[in-house]
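Give me structure tokens for this 91-residue protein.
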Amino acid sequence: MGARGEGAVVLGGVRRRVCLTLGALAEIETGLGVEGLAAAAERMKALSARDLMVVLAAVLRGGGETAPDVAGVEPREAARAVAAAFEAAAR
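Here you go.
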């Protein structure tokens, strides 16, 4: 995909970009109600549907979307998109 750390995902048949930016990480911490990356990582081991929506929206915003609508995304697609964002960040 484009910039380093970006990933391409397909959600509902639409190709979208995800990126785990510093802003996305801060948004994830806030949305999950945790402080620090270690606490966020621990919390992400067992995400609720609401938590998954928070994380997905954050990585989509990191990929350039301003107001991502994630409520209708299929859970498996959402989980794959979040995983893709984290994998891209690790490259």
